[in-house]
Specification:
12% of the residues are buried. A two-stranded antiparallel ribbon has the order 1-2. It is built from six helices and two strands, in the order ααααααββ. Helix 2 crosses helix 5. The two termini are 30 Å apart. It has one domain. By secondary structure, the protein is mainly alpha-helical. Strand 1 and strand 2 form a beta hairpin.
């Protein structure tokens, strides 16, 4: 017999799990054309995933994140093959046009909408009131 979750505990939806959302990011980052020629030793996707991991883990700087480069758990959690150094991250990502990230944001946003994770933020005329600036993050959203 399967018991219902205790009161106040929401049922986990697989499509909204961290693993599922990170998979969306990995797929989307893999679609972005790499601007570097010839083929570089560190894939663009790994550099993008590393930058995302740095923000998700709230590292204060690229240099602080660089100290985690050999952490196997970090690579496994975010699906990163090779973590670039702080200098490599800047060299790889600085020339990247941010417009390449917009469709990936849309993919994640649609997944959150479908899963009704944004309903609590509906404000006016079907718009959401949500402040995300990359400096503060609440994990209970």
């Amino acid at each position: 017999m399967i018991l219902p979750p205790p009161p106040g505990v929401r049922k986990v939806r697989k499509q909204l799990s961290a693993d599922a959302l990170y998979a969306l990011l990995r797929e989307g980052f893999g679609r972005i054309p790499d601007h570097r020629q010839p083929k570089p030793p560190i894939p663009l996707r790994d550099a993008l995933l590393s930058a995302f991991a740095m923000f998700a883990l709230k590292d204060p700087s690229l240099l602080a994140f660089d100290q985690r480069r050999n952490d196997a758990n970090l690579k496994t959690l975010f699906g990163i093959g090779q973590i670039p150094s702080d200098t490599q991250t800047r060299e790889i990502l600085d020339p990247l046009d941010p417009e390449h990230l917009r469709p990936i944001f849309g993919d994640v946003f649609r997944q959150l909408q479908r899963g009704k994770a944004l309903e609590a933020f509906a404000f006016y005329n079907g718009c959401y009131l949500l402040a995300l600036d990359g400096t503060q993050c609440r994990h209970d959203l």
